[in-house]
Amino acid sequence: MHHFSGGMILVNTCEDPFGDLYPKGVWGEFKKRVSSEISRNVVALACFKGETRFFACTGVFIDYDDEYPKILTSASLIRDRNVPNKIVEDLRIDVWLPSKKCRVIGTLKHYSLHYNVAVVNVDNHHALCPMNLEKCPVNHHDSMLYKSTVVAVGRIFQSGTLMAASGKLTLGSSRLDCKVLWYSTCKISKVGIGGPLVDVDGNFIGMNFHRMCGNCQKIGTPYMYREDLCRILEFLKTKKTTEFSFGDTVRGDEKPINEWPVPDPYWCDPSDVEDDMNDKQEVVAGGCPVRYILGSKCVLK
């Protein structure tokens, strides 16, 4: 939702919707059972210090351990904007639960500022059908997956509104520090940070982040693939050395850590607002596929 004052518009807030609101539009791509499960699993979270809200984003219940499901989200929720390698002190996490249509207190269980991942616990809440990150029929290296529709899901904290945007997986690399990132053409707002990227069968593909800088806007929305998330979560639980599939060792938050910039809200004239949701992603040039490598456009011939 955009806010207006004196003819100006506030953009880049944590309340800006994206895509199609549940159950319209892209939600028709899912079977009714799948869309219902997604609507019960996806939550909204906000970080407070006292009555001051620092950030709000999306999370999803996952089958995390033998106790009961936890919420997977982005560490942008808890990161101190002034000291990016620290979390907000004396924070409080509120969680909007769709099953109860109310807010409850969440507890920060694990986090990695380096990989921008956080796990939040809600006491005495048992999600009925949490997403399973390990037992998934989706093969990220299957070329057919890149031809299939994928969907990014988010939920607004203030209203509880659920939304989704569809797109395709796309190849590319950016200038972002983190190397454990892939990209999709799904266009989300800040609300969608920490939300799930799924296929039309509801299978979990990864967790979404924001298109934080100019070159990412050309490539697509970054996400972290489920297998890499599993390795990070395993490290957070056990602190045992483990490696990503490409050989790098999963590490902690010792310096230096990856940067994860998120755009701040700002006031501007409505005529200056670029209708990003209607932008057309360039995928071909002269009949040849286009790939962005470190933010630069390369034509594949």
From TrEMBL:
InterPro entries, A to Z: Peptidase_S1_PA (IPR009003)
Pfam families given in the database record: Trypsin_2 (PF13365)
Organism domain of life: Eukaryota
PANTHER family per record: OS03G0109900 PROTEIN, OS07G0665300 PROTEIN-RELATED
Name of the protein: Uncharacterized protein
Organism: Setaria italica
Organism ancestry: Eukaryota, Viridiplantae, Streptophyta, Embryophyta, Tracheophyta
